């Protein structure tokens, strides 16, 4: 496909963001990727322009939006993984993950939507997580942040659709991107939850080690971008078709038990 559309992909120096940026560039889009410090050149994909963006600072979001100009496609991918018992999550860490995973992406979207609306075309993809649909113990802050970003996207779809702008969410399952080495762990050394916590995190790490690849997720993101009428939600990996089919027919309590068993909590 050849196009003159311009796409902005956040968190484009590694993982899903890098794969999405490459896929779009290969398909003829003009692609701008972001990272916290792009001047080093680390993680730059061929054919992608880079600008700095730190979602934890609202002024950085505003500078990025001003620097990139007219954007047709926004892929809100940048984010952070956080784990910990609810009882022990520090307030500053809760605020940080919501600024990074929710408030920052929403702010960026707000700044770019007027231009999309004025031009009569836009695509916004929120990269979420299947954990938002199938919550797991000790991931409450991360699950809540991903559920929040999906909520913004799903609710706002009807607002902007009359102006040619489509908003959707892509929920990947377990992905082999090395994210298990970059988790932010919020648990005290003498936590009463430490044994169960180790079990769940060990299972998550094992699932991700054999998870789907970032390029596979990228192809789903691009499919959502290029769809004439994108669905509210796309899910990929972790046997998503079966999981969501079961979710539609099984009571919530049954689904909760299934998820717990899959993570060795009985």
UniProtKB/TrEMBL annotation:
Top-level division of the source organism's lineage: Bacteria
GO molecular function, one term: oxidoreductase activity
Membrane-spanning segments: none
SUPFAM superfamilies: NAD(P)-binding Rossmann-fold domains
PROSITE patterns: ADH_SHORT (PS00061)
Pfam hit, one: adh_short
Name of this protein: Short-chain dehydrogenase/reductase
Keywords recorded for this protein, A-Z: Oxidoreductase
Family: Belongs to the short-chain dehydrogenases/reductases (SDR) family.
GO cellular component, one term: membrane
């Amino acid at each position: 496909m050849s196009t003159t559309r311009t796409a902005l992909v956040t968190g484009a120096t590694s993982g899903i963001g890098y794969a999405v940026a490459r896929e779009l560039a290969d398909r003829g889009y003009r692609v701008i990727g972001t990272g916290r410090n792009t001047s080093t050149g680390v993680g730059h994909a061929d054919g992608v322009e880079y600008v700095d963006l730190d979602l934890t600072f609202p002024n950085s979001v505003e500078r990025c939006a001003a620097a990139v100009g007219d954007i047709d496609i926004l892929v809100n991918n940048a984010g952070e993984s956080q784990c910990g018992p609810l009882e022990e999550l520090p307030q500053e860490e809760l605020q940080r993950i919501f600024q990074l995973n929710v408030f920052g992406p929403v702010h960026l979207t707000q700044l770019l939507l007027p231009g999309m609306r004025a031009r009569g075309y836009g695509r916004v993809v929120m990269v979420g997580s299947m954990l938002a649909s199938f919550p797991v113990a000790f991931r409450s802050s991360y699950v809540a942040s991903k559920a929040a970003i999906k909520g913004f996207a799903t609710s706002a779809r009807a607002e902007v659709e009359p102006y040619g702008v489509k908003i959707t969410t892509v929920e990947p399952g377990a992905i082999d991107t090395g994210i298990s080495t970059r988790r932010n762990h919020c648990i005290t050394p003498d936590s009463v939850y430490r044994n169960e916590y180790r079990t769940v995190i060990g299972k998550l790490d094992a699932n991700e080690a054999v998870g789907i690849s970032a390029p596979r997720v990228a192809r789903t993101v691009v499919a959502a971008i290029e769809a004439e009428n994108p669905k509210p939600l796309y899910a990929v990996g972790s046997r998503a078709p079966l999981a969501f089919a079961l979710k539609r027919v099984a009571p919530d309590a049954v689904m909760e038990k299934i998820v717990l068993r899959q993570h060795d909590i009985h």
